[in-house]
Amino acid sequence: xxxxxxxxxxxxxxxxxxxxxxxxxxxxxxxxxxxxxxxxxxxxxxxxxxxxxxxxxxxxxxxxxxxxxxxxxxxxxxxxxxxxxxxxxxxxxxxxxxxxxxxxxxxxxxx
Length: 111
Hints:
The protein has about 110 residues and is α+β, with helices and mostly antiparallel strands. The chain has helices spanning about 5-20, 45-55, 55-65, 100-105, and strands spanning about 20-30, 35-40, 70-75, 85-90. It has a single domain (about 5-105), classed as 2-Layer Sandwich (Beta-Lactamase). This is Roadblock/LAMTOR2 domain-containing protein.
């Protein structure tokens, strides 16, 4: 199955709709190469760095202060080891939505 940018954008859009406190998101392969991302320009994070951070969160902590954010890292590939890293603005208000995030990821058929 060929995966298009539009398909990946739809997945990130669903996640953004679930979490109004969504800041940025990236999908990366097991080696940390970016597949797709949604990063606002004002955040000033390099997509390659952000994708690498999805595979090893310690890398992210070495180069950027994430104390204002909640980092969510999920493995979403069935065959391929695709990583999803989502940055959320810290808020306990949406913590109940993580179950919904797991449902979105389990229903996706991209990977």
